Amino acid sequence: MSSALDVIVVGGGLMGSAAALQLAEGGMRVALCEARQLAMGASGVNAGTLSMQTKRVPLIPYALRGYEWWKRAGDAVGFKETGSLTLAYTQAEAEGLAQRMSARRNAGAPIEMITATAAHALEPGLREGLAAASYCAADGYANSSLTGSYYRARLRAAGAEVHELTPVQAIIPLRKAPGLARRSSASSCATSSSADAGSTSTITIFCWGVRRTLPDPNL
Ligand SMILES: Cc1cc2nc3c(=O)[nH]c(=O)nc-3n(C[C@H](O)[C@H](O)[C@H](O)COP(=O)(O)OP(=O)(O)OC[C@H]3O[C@@H](n4cnc5c(N)ncnc54)[C@H](O)[C@@H]3O)c2cc1C
Protein backbone atom coordinates (compact mmCIF):
# COMPACT_ATOMS: atom_id res chain seq x y z
CA MET A 1 0.00 0.00 0.00
CA SER A 2 1.24 3.47 -0.82
CA SER A 3 2.58 5.40 2.18
CA ALA A 4 1.24 8.75 0.90
CA LEU A 5 -2.48 8.49 1.55
CA ASP A 6 -5.07 10.90 2.90
CA VAL A 7 -7.71 8.29 3.71
CA ILE A 8 -8.01 4.52 4.03
CA VAL A 9 -11.56 3.25 3.67
CA VAL A 10 -12.22 -0.13 5.28
CA GLY A 11 -14.93 -2.22 3.65
CA GLY A 12 -15.72 -2.27 -0.07
CA GLY A 13 -19.49 -2.62 -0.04
CA LEU A 14 -21.72 0.07 -1.48
CA MET A 15 -21.07 2.46 1.37
CA GLY A 16 -17.30 2.14 1.43
CA SER A 17 -16.94 2.10 -2.36
CA ALA A 18 -19.15 5.16 -2.82
CA ALA A 19 -17.34 7.04 -0.04
CA ALA A 20 -13.91 6.14 -1.47
CA LEU A 21 -15.02 7.20 -4.95
CA GLN A 22 -16.35 10.57 -3.75
CA LEU A 23 -13.10 11.22 -1.87
CA ALA A 24 -10.88 10.17 -4.80
CA GLU A 25 -12.88 12.22 -7.31
CA GLY A 26 -12.63 15.13 -4.86
CA GLY A 27 -8.84 14.96 -5.08
CA MET A 28 -7.85 12.93 -2.03
CA ARG A 29 -5.34 10.07 -2.10
CA VAL A 30 -7.49 7.11 -1.15
CA ALA A 31 -6.97 3.42 -0.52
CA LEU A 32 -9.88 1.04 -0.10
CA CYS A 33 -9.28 -2.23 1.79
CA GLU A 34 -11.81 -5.02 1.29
CA ALA A 35 -11.54 -8.36 3.10
CA ARG A 36 -13.01 -10.30 0.16
CA GLN A 37 -13.78 -8.68 -3.20
CA LEU A 38 -15.78 -5.53 -3.74
CA ALA A 39 -19.51 -5.94 -3.03
CA MET A 40 -19.34 -9.57 -2.00
CA GLY A 41 -21.43 -8.81 1.10
CA ALA A 42 -24.98 -7.44 1.21
CA SER A 43 -24.13 -4.96 -1.56
CA GLY A 44 -23.69 -7.70 -4.16
CA VAL A 45 -26.52 -10.04 -3.26
CA ASN A 46 -29.49 -7.81 -2.47
CA ALA A 47 -32.71 -7.55 -4.48
CA GLY A 48 -31.60 -4.24 -5.99
CA THR A 49 -34.94 -2.56 -5.37
CA LEU A 50 -34.86 1.23 -5.83
CA SER A 51 -38.03 2.37 -4.11
CA MET A 52 -39.09 5.78 -2.82
CA GLN A 53 -42.40 4.36 -1.57
CA THR A 54 -40.72 2.14 1.01
CA LYS A 55 -38.28 4.77 2.30
CA ARG A 56 -38.88 6.58 5.56
CA VAL A 57 -39.66 10.26 5.07
CA PRO A 58 -36.39 11.66 6.53
CA LEU A 59 -34.47 9.44 4.09
CA ILE A 60 -36.25 10.66 0.93
CA PRO A 61 -33.66 13.38 0.12
CA TYR A 62 -30.93 10.71 0.25
CA ALA A 63 -33.03 8.28 -1.79
CA LEU A 64 -33.48 10.96 -4.47
CA ARG A 65 -29.73 11.54 -4.69
CA GLY A 66 -29.03 7.81 -4.67
CA TYR A 67 -31.61 7.32 -7.40
CA GLU A 68 -29.86 9.89 -9.64
CA TRP A 69 -26.57 8.08 -8.96
CA TRP A 70 -27.98 4.70 -10.09
CA LYS A 71 -29.68 6.30 -13.08
CA ARG A 72 -26.40 7.86 -14.26
CA ALA A 73 -24.65 4.49 -13.85
CA GLY A 74 -27.33 3.06 -16.18
CA ASP A 75 -26.57 -0.21 -17.99
CA ALA A 76 -23.31 -0.68 -16.06
CA VAL A 77 -25.43 -1.56 -12.99
CA GLY A 78 -28.46 -2.91 -14.85
CA PHE A 79 -30.59 0.11 -13.93
CA LYS A 80 -34.26 -0.17 -14.95
CA GLU A 81 -36.98 2.39 -14.29
CA THR A 82 -40.17 0.33 -14.04
CA GLY A 83 -42.47 2.34 -11.77
CA SER A 84 -44.07 0.74 -8.72
CA LEU A 85 -47.49 0.44 -7.12
CA THR A 86 -48.52 0.20 -3.47
CA LEU A 87 -52.02 -1.18 -3.02
CA ALA A 88 -54.83 -0.52 -0.52
CA TYR A 89 -57.79 -2.92 -0.37
CA THR A 90 -59.86 -1.27 2.38
CA GLN A 91 -60.92 2.31 3.01
CA ALA A 92 -58.78 2.43 6.16
CA GLU A 93 -55.74 1.19 4.19
CA ALA A 94 -56.44 3.78 1.49
CA GLU A 95 -56.50 6.61 4.03
CA GLY A 96 -53.28 5.41 5.67
CA LEU A 97 -51.62 5.03 2.27
CA ALA A 98 -52.66 8.55 1.21
CA GLN A 99 -51.23 9.96 4.45
CA ARG A 100 -47.90 8.10 4.16
CA MET A 101 -47.41 8.93 0.49
CA SER A 102 -48.39 12.57 0.98
CA ALA A 103 -45.54 12.89 3.51
CA ARG A 104 -43.12 11.36 0.99
CA ARG A 105 -44.37 13.58 -1.84
CA ASN A 106 -43.90 16.65 0.38
CA ALA A 107 -40.32 15.49 0.94
CA GLY A 108 -39.75 15.47 -2.84
CA ALA A 109 -40.58 11.92 -3.94
CA PRO A 110 -42.54 11.83 -7.23
CA ILE A 111 -45.39 9.73 -5.81
CA GLU A 112 -49.06 10.15 -6.75
CA MET A 113 -52.29 8.57 -5.53
CA ILE A 114 -54.17 6.90 -8.37
CA THR A 115 -57.59 5.28 -8.71
CA ALA A 116 -58.21 1.55 -8.75
CA THR A 117 -59.06 1.80 -12.46
CA ALA A 118 -55.73 3.48 -13.22
CA ALA A 119 -53.88 0.84 -11.18
CA HIS A 120 -55.59 -1.98 -13.10
CA ALA A 121 -54.62 -0.29 -16.37
CA LEU A 122 -50.97 -0.33 -15.26
CA GLU A 123 -51.10 -3.91 -13.92
CA PRO A 124 -54.01 -5.95 -15.30
CA GLY A 125 -53.18 -8.91 -13.06
CA LEU A 126 -54.24 -7.15 -9.83
CA ARG A 127 -56.90 -8.80 -7.67
CA GLU A 128 -60.32 -7.11 -7.85
CA GLY A 129 -61.57 -5.01 -4.91
CA LEU A 130 -58.79 -2.43 -4.88
CA ALA A 131 -59.72 0.74 -2.96
CA ALA A 132 -56.78 2.94 -4.04
CA ALA A 133 -53.13 2.78 -5.00
CA SER A 134 -50.07 4.95 -4.97
CA TYR A 135 -47.71 5.03 -7.92
CA CYS A 136 -44.11 6.16 -8.24
CA ALA A 137 -42.96 6.30 -11.86
CA ALA A 138 -39.31 6.69 -10.81
CA ASP A 139 -39.09 3.43 -8.85
CA GLY A 140 -37.20 0.52 -10.34
CA TYR A 141 -34.27 -1.77 -9.70
CA ALA A 142 -30.60 -2.37 -10.39
CA ASN A 143 -28.60 -5.59 -10.67
CA SER A 144 -26.65 -5.82 -7.42
CA SER A 145 -24.27 -8.46 -8.83
CA LEU A 146 -22.80 -5.73 -11.08
CA THR A 147 -22.03 -3.41 -8.15
CA GLY A 148 -18.51 -4.70 -7.53
CA SER A 149 -17.27 -4.53 -11.11
CA TYR A 150 -18.86 -1.08 -11.54
CA TYR A 151 -17.14 0.41 -8.50
CA ARG A 152 -13.82 -1.36 -9.20
CA ALA A 153 -13.64 0.33 -12.62
CA ARG A 154 -14.77 3.74 -11.31
CA LEU A 155 -12.38 3.67 -8.35
CA ARG A 156 -9.39 2.76 -10.51
CA ALA A 157 -10.31 5.45 -13.05
CA ALA A 158 -10.42 7.97 -10.19
CA GLY A 159 -6.92 6.94 -9.08
CA ALA A 160 -7.94 5.19 -5.86
CA GLU A 161 -5.95 2.18 -4.69
CA VAL A 162 -8.25 -0.85 -4.46
CA HIS A 163 -6.89 -3.62 -2.20
CA GLU A 164 -9.11 -6.69 -2.36
CA LEU A 165 -8.55 -9.84 -0.31
CA THR A 166 -7.09 -7.45 2.27
CA PRO A 167 -8.82 -7.72 5.65
CA VAL A 168 -7.95 -4.89 8.00
CA GLN A 169 -6.91 -6.41 11.30
CA ALA A 170 -6.46 -3.29 13.41
CA ILE A 171 -6.81 0.49 13.28
CA ILE A 172 -4.00 2.03 15.28
CA PRO A 173 -4.35 5.66 16.41
CA LEU A 174 -1.08 7.53 15.79
CA ARG A 175 -1.88 10.95 17.21
CA LYS A 176 -4.82 13.16 17.94
CA ALA A 177 -5.14 15.85 15.28
CA PRO A 178 -5.58 19.20 17.08
CA GLY A 179 -8.67 21.14 16.04
CA LEU A 180 -10.43 18.16 14.48
CA ALA A 181 -13.62 16.57 15.72
CA ARG A 182 -13.21 14.01 18.49
CA ARG A 183 -13.54 11.00 16.17
CA SER A 184 -11.20 12.39 13.50
CA SER A 185 -7.70 11.33 14.30
CA ALA A 186 -4.71 10.21 12.39
CA SER A 187 -4.34 6.46 12.29
CA SER A 188 -2.85 3.62 10.36
CA CYS A 189 -4.35 0.29 9.28
CA ALA A 190 -2.76 -3.07 9.87
CA THR A 191 -3.35 -5.72 7.22
CA SER A 192 -1.53 -9.00 6.67
CA SER A 193 0.59 -7.35 3.96
CA SER A 194 1.08 -3.91 5.45
CA ALA A 195 1.42 -2.86 9.06
CA ASP A 196 1.70 0.85 8.47
CA ALA A 197 0.18 2.97 5.75
CA GLY A 198 1.51 6.21 7.14
CA SER A 199 -0.48 8.88 8.92
CA THR A 200 -3.96 8.89 7.42
CA SER A 201 -7.60 9.17 8.35
CA THR A 202 -9.42 5.86 8.40
CA ILE A 203 -13.09 5.50 7.58
CA THR A 204 -14.53 2.20 8.70
CA ILE A 205 -17.65 1.39 6.75
CA PHE A 206 -19.36 -1.91 7.27
CA CYS A 207 -21.63 -1.53 10.22
CA TRP A 208 -23.05 1.85 10.86
CA GLY A 209 -26.42 3.21 11.69
CA VAL A 210 -28.10 6.11 13.37
CA ARG A 211 -30.70 5.45 16.02
CA ARG A 212 -33.20 8.25 16.05
CA THR A 213 -36.71 8.90 17.18
CA LEU A 214 -39.09 9.49 14.32
CA PRO A 215 -42.23 11.56 14.84
CA ASP A 216 -44.47 8.70 13.71
CA PRO A 217 -43.17 5.14 13.18
CA ASN A 218 -45.70 4.63 10.36
CA LEU A 219 -44.18 7.46 8.34
C1 LIG B 1 -31.26 -10.01 1.52
C2 LIG B 1 -31.08 -8.50 1.37
C3 LIG B 1 -31.88 -7.80 0.47
C4 LIG B 1 -31.74 -6.42 0.35
N1 LIG B 1 -32.47 -5.76 -0.57
C5 LIG B 1 -32.28 -4.45 -0.78
C6 LIG B 1 -32.99 -3.77 -1.79
O1 LIG B 1 -33.76 -4.36 -2.53
N2 LIG B 1 -32.77 -2.44 -1.98
C7 LIG B 1 -31.89 -1.75 -1.17
O2 LIG B 1 -31.71 -0.54 -1.36
N3 LIG B 1 -31.18 -2.38 -0.20
C8 LIG B 1 -31.37 -3.70 0.02
N4 LIG B 1 -30.66 -4.34 0.99
C9 LIG B 1 -29.75 -3.54 1.83
C10 LIG B 1 -28.40 -3.27 1.14
O3 LIG B 1 -27.91 -4.45 0.53
C11 LIG B 1 -27.44 -2.78 2.21
O4 LIG B 1 -28.01 -1.68 2.88
C12 LIG B 1 -26.10 -2.35 1.62
O5 LIG B 1 -25.58 -3.32 0.74
C13 LIG B 1 -25.13 -2.10 2.76
O6 LIG B 1 -23.88 -1.75 2.20
P1 LIG B 1 -22.62 -1.66 3.11
O7 LIG B 1 -21.49 -1.18 2.24
O8 LIG B 1 -22.93 -0.88 4.33
O9 LIG B 1 -22.37 -3.16 3.64
P2 LIG B 1 -21.73 -4.47 2.91
O10 LIG B 1 -22.19 -4.64 1.52
O11 LIG B 1 -21.99 -5.59 3.87
O12 LIG B 1 -20.18 -4.15 2.85
C14 LIG B 1 -19.32 -4.27 3.98
C15 LIG B 1 -17.98 -4.77 3.46
O13 LIG B 1 -17.00 -4.65 4.49
C16 LIG B 1 -16.09 -5.73 4.34
N5 LIG B 1 -15.36 -5.90 5.61
C17 LIG B 1 -15.86 -6.26 6.80
N6 LIG B 1 -14.86 -6.30 7.69
C18 LIG B 1 -13.72 -5.95 7.05
C19 LIG B 1 -12.35 -5.79 7.44
N7 LIG B 1 -11.94 -6.01 8.70
N8 LIG B 1 -11.45 -5.41 6.52
C20 LIG B 1 -11.82 -5.15 5.25
N9 LIG B 1 -13.11 -5.28 4.81
C21 LIG B 1 -14.03 -5.68 5.72
C22 LIG B 1 -17.01 -6.91 4.01
O14 LIG B 1 -16.30 -7.97 3.37
C23 LIG B 1 -18.04 -6.24 3.07
O15 LIG B 1 -17.70 -6.37 1.69
C24 LIG B 1 -30.78 -5.72 1.14
C25 LIG B 1 -29.96 -6.44 2.03
C26 LIG B 1 -30.09 -7.80 2.15
C27 LIG B 1 -29.18 -8.55 3.11
Key structural traits:
FAD/NAD(P)-binding domain; four-stranded parallel β-sheet; binds flavin-adenine dinucleotide; three-stranded antiparallel β-sheet; elongated; alpha/beta
The CATH superfamily of the largest domain is identified as: FAD/NAD(P)-binding domain
Question: Helix and strand string, N-terminal first?
Answer: EHEHEHEEHEHEEHEEEE
The structure class reads alpha/beta
The ligands found in this model are:
flavin-adenine dinucleotide
Strand-residue proportion? 15-25%
**CATH third-tier fold name of the largest domain:** FAD/NAD(P)-binding domain
Radius of gyration, in angstroms, nearest whole number = 22 Å
Describe the structure concisely.
The protein is α/β, with parallel strands linked by helices and 219 residues long. It folds into two domains: 7-46 and 145-204, FAD/NAD(P)-binding domain (3-Layer(bba) Sandwich), CATH 3.50.50; 49-142, no CATH class.
Give a verbal description of the structure.
The structure is a single chain. This protein has 219 residues and is α/β, with parallel strands linked by helices. The protein has two domains: 7-46 and 145-204, FAD/NAD(P)-binding domain; 49-142, no CATH class. Helix content is 29%, strand content 23%. The protein contains six helices and twelve strands. The chain has helices at 14-25, 42-45, 60-73, 91-106, 116-122, 147-157; strands spanning 7-10, 30-33, 49-50, 80-81, 84-88, 111-114, 132-136, 140-141, 161-163, 168-176, 185-191, 201-204. The strands form four sheets. The protein has a four-stranded parallel sheet, with helices on one face. A hairpin with an 8-residue loop joins strand 10 (168-176) and strand 11. Helix 1 (14-25) runs parallel beside helix 6 (147-157). The chain starts with 6 loop residues before the first strand and ends in a 15-residue tail after the last strand. Mean pLDDT is 86; it is low at 180-185 and 206-215. The protein binds flavin-adenine dinucleotide. The site of flavin-adenine dinucleotide has 23 residues, from helix 1 and helix 2.
